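queue> pop job 88
queue> type: inverse folding (structure -> sequence)
queue> payload:
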C-alpha cells in the first residue's frame, strides 16, 4: 500500500511539481490549496505526512499547524515549507510539533529525503492537553536571532524542539557566536517564559564568591555573612538558569552543581536544610569539554548531565551567507542609536567585510559596524572606516585559541587587511567578467583607483 502525502500550498505549480516528483517516487499524494481545505481533507484521506506552506492567504500554515495540534484524532507528521522564513518562524513551527522545516526554492531530492525521514517516525500524537503556552502567553522575541543559513536553520529547529521540554541543554561554540541569545530564545519559547531567566558568567566570578552566588548562604556562614541570602538557583526557581562559560567551574563547584542536577535540591553555605529547586539548566562553553575531561579538569559525570541536548553554534566564517543580513541589522540599529539615519556601506566595504574570516564572530562584526557608523563623517561607510576597527579588534579579540596561547595569524594586521582587499578586488573583477568600469562602480571607487590597486597588488584579470 502506498504511503500517503498531503500537499498544502496556495500555488498550483508548487503542488504540481511536488505531486509529480513524489508520485514518481512511489507515494500516493493529494493536494489542498489552503489550510482550511487541508483540515477538511485530513480525516478522509489520513495522510502520514503533510507538506504545509507557511505563507497562505486567510488561514496560514502556522495557524493551520496550531489547529492541527488542537484537534483530536489523526495527526500526520508536518513538514513546513516557506520562502520567507525567519528564526522565529522556524522555532515556532518546531515548538508546535512540526517534524521539519524546509526553505523554498527547494531541491526536490531534498524534499524526498525529508519525507522519507518523516515516514520513519511514528505519527505525531495529539497533545492538545499539554502545557504549551499560547503565542500571547509566551515572550515574543522578534529580531533576536539573525541569519537564515542552513547551519542556523538547524540551530533554530533544535531550539524549537527542545524549548518545550525541561531537558538540560549544552550550547557549544566560539566566543561571539551568540550562545546567550540561543539560551534566551529557548527560555522565551518555553513554558517557563513567565518565570526568571538568570544568567551567570562562571568564568568572571572568583570561586568562593561564585559558590555563594549560586547556592546562597546562611547567617554566619563566613565573615561578613550578616544575614541569610538566597542563591541564584533559588532566585531562578520555576525558571531557567543560564551558566555561561561552564567549563571554567572548579572541580569542587562541579561536584555541588552535579548534586543539584541529580537531586534537584541544594544546601546553602553554612546550612543543613535541603531546599528543593525547580530550575532548568542551560549551560554554554567555548572550551572543548572532552579535552578538559581528559586533563581531569572537568567531571565526566557532569558533562553527560549537561550534554543531554547539545547545540553547536557555527562560527561566522562557516555561514558567510548571513553576513549581509547581519550587516543590515546592525547598520539599522546603530544608525538609529547615533541619529545617523540613512547610513549605508559602499560596495567595497561590503566586499571587505564578506572576505574577512571574523575570528571574533558576530560580536566582532557588530562592534565593527558600530564603530564604522560612529567614524563615518557622512552616510557613506567606506573601506577605511571598516579597516580601522578590523585592525584593532583583531588584536584585542580573545578567542578560545588565544586563551591557550595560540594566535590566529602572526602577520602584521596591515598585511592581513591588504590581503583581504586584494581578494575583494579580485572577486569583484571576476563577477564583472574583468570589466574595469563596472568593477570600480561595484567597489565604490574610481576607475583610476582600481587600476592603481590592481597594479599595486599584481592583479591580472583579463576582460571577457
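queue> result:
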Amino acid at each position: 500500500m502506498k504511503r500517503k502525502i498531503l500537499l498544502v500550498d496556495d500555488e498550483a505549480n508548487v503542488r504540481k511539481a511536488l505531486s509529480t516528483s513524489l508520485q514518481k517516487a512511489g507515494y500516493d499524494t493529494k493536494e489542498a490549496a489552503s489550510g482550511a481545505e487541508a483540515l477538511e481533507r485530513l480525516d478522509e484521506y489520513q495522510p502520514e505526512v503533510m507538506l504545509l506552506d507557511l505563507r497562505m492567504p486567510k488561514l496560514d500554515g502556522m495557524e493551520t499547524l496550531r489547529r492541527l495540534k488542537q484537534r483530536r484524532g489523526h495527526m500526520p507528521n508536518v513538514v513546513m515549507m516557506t520562502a520567507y522564513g525567519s528564526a522565529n518562524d522556524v522555532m515556532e513551527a518546531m515548538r508546535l510539533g512540526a517534524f521539519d522545516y524546509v526553505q523554498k526554492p527547494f531541491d526536490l531530492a531534498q524534499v524526498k529525503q525529508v519525507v522519507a525521514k518523516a515516514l520513519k517516525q511514528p505519527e505525531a500524537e495529539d497533545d492538545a492537553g499539554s502545557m504549551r503556552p499560547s503565542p500571547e502567553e509566551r515572550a515574543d522575541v522578534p529580531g533576536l536571532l539573525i541569519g537564515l543559513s542552513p547551519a542556523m536553520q538547524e540551530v533554530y529547529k533544535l531550539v524549537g524542539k527542545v524549548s518545550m521540554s525541561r531537558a538540560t541543554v549544552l550550547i557549544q561554540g566560539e566566543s561571539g557566536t551568540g550562545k546567550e541569545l540561543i539560551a534566551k530564545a529557548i527560555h522565551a519559547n518555553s513554558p517557563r517564559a513567565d518565570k526568571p531567566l538568570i544568567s551567570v558568567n562562571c568564568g568572571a566570578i572568583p570561586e568562593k564568591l561564585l559558590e555563594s552566588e549560586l547556592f546562597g548562604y546562611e547567617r554566619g556562614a563566613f565573615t561578613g555573612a550578616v544575614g541569610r541570602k538566597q542563591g541564584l538557583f533559588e532566585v531562578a526557581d520555576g525558571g531557567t538558569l543560564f551558566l555561561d562559560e561552564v567549563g571554567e567551574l572548579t572541580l569542587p563547584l562541579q561536584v555541588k552543581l552535579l548534586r543539584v542536577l541529580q537531586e534537584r535540591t541544594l544546601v546553602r553555605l553554612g546550612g543543613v536544610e535541603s531546599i528543593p529547586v525547580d530550575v532548568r539548566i542551560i549551560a554554554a562553553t567555548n572550551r572543548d569539554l572532552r579535552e578538559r575531561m581528559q586533563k581531569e579538569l572537568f567531571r565526566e559525570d557532569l558533562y553527560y548531565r549537561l550534554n543531554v541536548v547539545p547545540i553547536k553554534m557555527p562560527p561566522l566564517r562557516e555561514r558567510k551567507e548571513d553576513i549581509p543580513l547581519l550587516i543590515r541589522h546592525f547598520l539599522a540599529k546603530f544608525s538609529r542609536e547615533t541619529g545617523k539615519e540613512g547610513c549605508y556601506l559602499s560596495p567595497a566595504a561590503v566586499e571587505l567585510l564578506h572576505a574577512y574570516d571574523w575570528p571574533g564572530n558576530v560580536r566582532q562584526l557588530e562592534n565593527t559596524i558600530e564603530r564604522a557608523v560612529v567614524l563615518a563623517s557622512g552616510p557613506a561607510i567606506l573601506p577605511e572606516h571598516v579597516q580601522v576597527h578590523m585592525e584593532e579588534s583583531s588584536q584585542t579579540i580573545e578567542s578560545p585559541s588565544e586563551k591557550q596561547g595560540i594566535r590566529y595569524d602572526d602577520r602584521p594586521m596591515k598585511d592581513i587587511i591588504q590581503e583581504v582587499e586584494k581578494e575583494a578586488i579580485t572577486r569583484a573583477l571576476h563577477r564583472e567578467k574583468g570589466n574595469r568600469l563596472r568593477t570600480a562602480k561595484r567597489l565604490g571607487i574610481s576607475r583610476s583607483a582600481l587600476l592603481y590597486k590592481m597594479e599595486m597588488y599584481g592583479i591580472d584579470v583579463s576582460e571577457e
